TrEMBL record:
<dbReference type="InterPro" id="IPR036291">
    <property type="entry name" value="NAD(P)-bd_dom_sf"/>
</dbReference>
<feature type="transmembrane region" description="Helical">
    <location>
        <begin position="29"/>
        <end position="48"/>
    </location>
</feature>
<feature type="domain" description="NAD-dependent epimerase/dehydratase">
    <location>
        <begin position="94"/>
        <end position="331"/>
    </location>
</feature>
<protein>
    <recommendedName>
        <fullName>UDP-glucuronate 4-epimerase</fullName>
        <ecNumber>5.1.3.6</ecNumber>
    </recommendedName>
</protein>
<keyword id="KW-1133">Transmembrane helix</keyword>
<keyword id="KW-0812">Transmembrane</keyword>
<keyword id="KW-0520">NAD</keyword>
<comment type="similarity">
    <text>Belongs to the NAD(P)-dependent epimerase/dehydratase family.</text>
</comment>
<dbReference type="InterPro" id="IPR001509">
    <property type="entry name" value="Epimerase_deHydtase"/>
</dbReference>
<keyword id="KW-0413">Isomerase</keyword>
<keyword id="KW-0472">Membrane</keyword>
<dbReference type="Pfam" id="PF01370">
    <property type="entry name" value="Epimerase"/>
</dbReference>
<dbReference type="GO" id="GO:0050378">
    <property type="term" value="F:UDP-glucuronate 4-epimerase activity"/>
</dbReference>
<comment type="subunit">
    <text>Homodimer.</text>
</comment>
<dbReference type="GO" id="GO:0032580">
    <property type="term" value="C:Golgi cisterna membrane"/>
</dbReference>
């Protein structure tokens, strides 16, 4: 066989076409054909090497995504259906994006506990330690929640999910979080918080029936606003970080999709959410890690020794706010990409209403950990941080029955207990 191939090639090489003499390089036809092939080749190379997300930031983002993106097939569809199956009377069927994230895990577990159908979606990127995300995934798996591995920018995947399940609701929590990281990787904020959100809304608007959407905005949209406590009616046109700007953009985008397509949209402005299974990039989390390791921590202070404070909000209170938002969300009014009438559009602050100085947060941690922190005081860096946050929650209280009930001391006690059991003696160490 090998011989045959070789001899054929040899034979072909040896043979000369009768036209060979006439078709020389300097002939215009040969030149034209040659350059046409080169041009076509370049187009093909460009086409196949472009990331499918067609984002100018695609390569950076795909480096961070550890997703295998394998989906589809009868067994996969069966798993998706089973996870999204409603098991209680009047239950809802929810697609939770960012389900392996901190808030996403807690919300998914709570929905599943009360018999709702829940399907997770997460790209498992490495913004922070993905093993923590995998541990959350394992936790959800045990309660019957399946997390599909994929990106919200993958429109084909989203369409497939809506083809397999007629979701009544979407809890959209997938996002690039963190205020300070926006100066390190600005592109990831555009990719997830803007392009990803639009990709999701595009699919939701065409879905039949259209789902109602509840999504995570942020307290950071208040930016340089100095009027306290922050009310939903206050100005939000002075973001202090790109993160805040992308969340603010999300609120405007939500308005557009509500206006044009009749999508029911509720944005939740979360105020510094903390608790067990939290995010390692947040101060309360890495302060705990560093205090235990005997490493120095930096505490920010504003000009003239001004106090920096946050309206820290415990995860269980946030979960209640999320579920109440889903339960009070009205149906979207459009179908097949066409608006049929006005639809609900809401924004709520979900905070704790009692700001605590960061120095107090550290004092509480010292007491709970029984270790004295090595502290250095630093001027609040000009990298997106604001001096304080304070939520006015009267609107959420009135419309959602939202009533936060966990103070920082109580919430941190639960966090530290979890932290020590998760990272404690002989177990994994926080990265
Ligand atoms: O409400 C939100 O919408 C946002 O909340 C969270 O942002 P922040 O409120 O900034 O939380 P976080 O970083 O934990 O800093 C806490 C405090 O510690 C101070 N801080 C921070 C770091 C440090 O080294 N020293 C320090 O004093 C710092 O100045 C601050 O006062 C989410 O991360 C964000 O994704 C978004 O959801």
């Amino acid at each position: 066989m090998k011989e045959n191939v070789q001899s054929t090639l040899g034979k072909f090489k040896m043979e000369k076409s009768p036209y060979m003499h006439r078709l020389r390089w300097h002939s215009p036809i040969v030149k034209l054909t040659f350059w046409s092939f080169v041009f076509l080749g370049l187009i093909l190379v460009f086409f196949f090497r472009s990331p499918s997300t067609s984002s100018p930031l695609g390569s950076d983002v795909s480096r961070r995504s550890l997703s295998t993106n394998s989906w589809g097939g009868p067994a996969w569809e069966k798993r998706v259906r089973s996870s999204a199956k409603v098991r209680s009377r009047n239950g809802i069927s929810v697609l939770v994006t960012g389900a392996a994230g901190f808030v996403g895990t807690h919300v998914s577990a709570a929905l599943k506990r009360r018999g709702d159908g829940v399907l997770g979606l997460d790209n498992f990127n490495d913004y922070y330690d993905p093993t923590l995300k995998r541990a959350r995934q394992a936790l959800l798996e045990r309660s019957g929640v399946y997390i599909v591995e994929g990106d919200i920018n993958d429109k084909a995947l989203l369409e497939k999910l809506f083809e397999v399940v007629a979701f009544t609701h979407v809890m959209h929590l997938a996002a690039q979080a963190g205020v300070r990281y926006a100066m390190v990787n600005p592109g990831s904020y555009i990719h997830s918080n803007i392009a990803g959100f639009v990709s999701l809304l595009e699919v939701c608007k065409s879905a039949n029936p259209q789902p109602a959407i509840v999504w995570a905005s942020s307290s950071s949209v208040y930016g340089l606003n100095t009027k306290v406590p922050f009310s939903e009616k206050d100005r939000t046109d002075q973001p202090a970080s790109l993160y805040a700007a992308t969340k603010k953009a999300g609120e405007e985008i939500a308005h557009t999709y509500n206006h044009i397509y009749g999508l029911s949209l509720t944005g939740l402005r979360f105020f510094t959410v903390y608790g067990p299974w939290g995010r390692p990039d947040m101060a309360y989390f890495f302060f705990t890690k560093d205090i235990l390791k005997g490493k120095s921590i930096q505490i920010f202070e504003a000009a003239n020794h001004g106090t920096v404070a946050r309206d820290f909000t415990y995860i269980d209170d946030i979960v209640k706010g999320c579920l109440a938002s889903l339960d009070t969300a009205e149906k979207s009014t459009g179908s097949g990409g066409k608006k049929k009438g006005p639809a609900q559009l809401r924004v709520f602050n979900l905070g704790n209403t009692s700001p605590v100085p960061v120095t107090n947060l550290v004092n509480i941690l010292e007491r709970l950990l029984k270790v004295k922190a090595k502290k250095s005081i630093m001027k609040l860096p000009r990298n997106g941080d604001v001096q304080f946050t304070h939520a006015n929650i009267s609107s959420a209280r009135r419309e959602l029955g939202y009533k936060p009930s966990t103070d920082l001391q109580t919430g941190l006690k639960k966090f530290v207990k979890w932290y020590l059991s998760y990272y404690g003696e002989g177990k994994k160490s926080a990265k």
